[in-house]
Amino acid sequence: VTNGGKTTLAEKLMKMLPNCDIISQDDFFKPESEVETDERGFKLYDVLDALYMDEMVKSIRNWMKSPASSGVVTEEPQNTCDNLKNTDDVYILIVEGFLLYNYEPLNELWNRRYFLTLPYEECKRRRSTRVYQPADTPGYFDGHVWPMYLKYKNELEENGSNVVYLDGTKSQDELLSCVYSDITQELKKLRE
Length: 192
Hints:
Blueprint: H1 6-16, E1 20-24, H2 53-65, E2 92-96, H3 104-107, E3 113-117, H4 120-128, H5 140-159, E4 163-167, H6 172-191
Parallel strand pairs: 1-2, 3-4
Helix pairs in contact: 1-6
């Protein structure tokens, strides 16, 4: 969901996890001139066609081929628990974005999948506090952003499995604790 805390959570996790890097879907938006406009004049940014998804997949696969040379900082992360010590040979890539699980070529790559949710009113309130380039036009949230969120969320619920849904109204610390705990359990399994 837009403004659900995806980037904040990813950045906090990166500071806590060893050998961790982030790829953000926001870095793969097409230029405004290449984004379609609907009959109401809304730029259709909340659809897969607004993104260079093949380039994103390529970037992820390149990282997977050679994570050690990807620029990942290997210094000791902050607040690392004892369970994560001695994980020099494990590299973690966090991919964050809003349309990740609806793009089939990505679905074979995930070890863990998290989906942040927000109720309509909270999402609209948070969205209204952000400044976008180009700026949201009047009615854009209700006319495009929210309907696309519901569409893709419904697709995910119908087709997706192994997705952990997270309540985006919880505090950043609660969300961080939940995901961090889950990842440390996954890393323990990998080491065994």
